[in-house]
C-alpha cells in the first residue's frame, strides 16, 4: 500500500500552461469497465488515488523528493509558490514520474501515454489517517 508514484498536472489559465508535482507514496486503485456489446475490457477506465498528508501551522503538506510541498485550495493557489492544488475537470494525473515532460497537451498525452486520468472529484479526510482521495477518469 502507498508504494506508487503519480505526476499531478495543475492547469493555470493565467499562464495557459500546466505545472507538475511529483507525488510519491500513493495508493492507486484502478477500475475496469467491460463493454458487453464489444466483449472487451477497457483497462483503467477510472482510478481512485489515495495519499496521506501531514499538517502543521502553515497547512496540509506532502513530501516530494524529500521536500515539503503544501496543498492550496484552487481559488487561493498561487503558481509562483511551490504549492499544489487539485481542480476538478481541469487538472489531470499520470501514473508514474512524468515531471520531465515538456509542452504539455492533455489530448496528445492521452493518445500516447497509458494511465492518464482527468480529475473529477477530490476529497480531504481529517480523521486519524489524514489523507486525500482523487477520483479520475
Description:
The protein is mainly beta. 5% of the residues lie in helices and 56% in strands. It is globular and about 55 Å long. The two termini are 21 Å apart. The model has no long low-confidence stretch (mean pLDDT 90).
Shape, per Cα inertia axes: globular
Report on the biggest sheet: 6 strands, antiparallel, barrel
Strand line-up of the largest beta sheet? 1-2-3-10-9-8
| Helix/strand order | EEEEEEEEHEE
Structural class by sheet pairing and helices: mainly beta
Strand portion, in percent? over 45%
> What fraction, in percent, of the residue positions are helical?
under 10%
Number of helices, where a helix is a run of at least 4 consecutive DSSP H or I residues:
1
- State the end-to-end distance: 21 Å
Q: What is the number of strand segments?
A: 10
Oligomer: single chain
